[in-house]
C-alpha cells in the first residue's frame, strides 16, 4: 500500500494495489500545470481512495486533472473513458520501491533540459 498527499495535507490518498505504468510525462499540459514534468503511475479506480476535496479541471475533451484547491498540488489525471486513475509519484510518502518505466510525449518536452537516464522514450 502507498499513501500520498498534497503539499498542505488537505487532500490525501491511498493506493491499495501495485501501481502500473510508472512514467514521466513531458507533454505541454503537464509541463504547464506542474512547472516542469509530471511523474505518475495508475491503478484501477477501486484501488485508489481519496480523502479531502479535489478540484477537477477538464484539460481536454478526453481527460481531467485533479488538484488540491488549497495549495494547488497537481495530484491526479483521469481519462473519461478509462476505469483507472493516474496519481502523482511525487506526492507519495516515504520510499516507494517504484521505478519509472518510460518517458512519454518527449516530442513535446521543453528545450531547456535533456533526458539522459536511459529509460525508454516515446514521442
TrEMBL record:
Query: What PANTHER family would the database entry show?
Result: CENP-V_GFA DOMAIN-CONTAINING PROTEIN-RELATED, GFA DOMAIN-CONTAINING PROTEIN
Which protein, by its recorded name, is this? Uncharacterized conserved protein
Source taxon at top rank = Bacteria
Please name the Pfam families in this protein's record. GFA (PF04828)
GO molecular-function annotation terms? Answer: carbon-sulfur lyase activity; metal ion binding
Name all CENP-V/GFA domain ranges.
2-114
Assigned keywords, A-Z: Lyase, Metal-binding, Zinc
Name the InterPro entries for this protein.
Answer: CENP-V/GFA, Mss4-like_sf
Similarity annotation: Belongs to the Gfa family.
Is the keyword Lyase in the record? yes
Name the source organism.
Answer: Roseovarius marisflavi
The reply on keyword Zinc is yes
